[in-house]
Design a protein that fits this description.
Elements lengths: L4 E7 L2 H10 L3 E3 L7 E7 L2 E7 H5 L16 E5 L3 H13 L9 E2 L3 E7 L5 E7 L2 H4 L3
Length: about 140
């Protein structure tokens, strides 16, 4: 089956987007990074390709959405604790992102999220009691 995931996201200003994610503690794979694209390393075998909009357009015949005006995808990452969720949101806001919604505590799951500098939504969740999810 599949061994890796690459989420492709259009960005307006690649250096600014890279600086944002570096401020959150993420790194980039230099082998797949140049003036048109940057390979954001999210986790083991999990990547986001930040693609300059004109380069991104070359992969589709459809119009490219402005993530500050509309949403096509919500990227959700699991975290190891509530503190990690809150810490990443705080770093995102400090680096120029926004936190448009309040944290959500569902008892078995805690979540919060942020919008990056291009408006892409990143949801963060910590599953406190995954077994309780089915009981709801």
């Amino acid at each position: 089956m599949h061994k890796q995931i690459y989420v492709n996201l259009p960005v307006n200003d690649l250096p600014k987007s890279m600086a944002f994610f570096k401020a959150l503690g993420f790194g980039f794979n230099a082998q797949f990074t140049n003036d048109s694209a940057a390979c954001l390393e999210i986790g083991e075998n999990i990547y986001a390709m930040l693609l300059v909009k004109d380069f991104f357009k070359g992969f589709t015949g459809k119009p490219v959405a402005d993530a500050k005006e509309s949403t096509e995808v919500l990227v959700c990452l699991s975290c190891a604790s509530r503190a990690e969720v809150d810490g990443l949101v705080a770093k995102a806001v400090a680096a120029g992102g926004t936190a448009p919604r309040a944290p959500q505590d569902h008892g078995f799951m805690y979540g919060h999220g942020f919008e990056d500098v291009d408006g892409h939504i990143w949801e963060l969740v910590y599953m406190e009691d995954p077994a309780a999810a089915g009981a709801r």
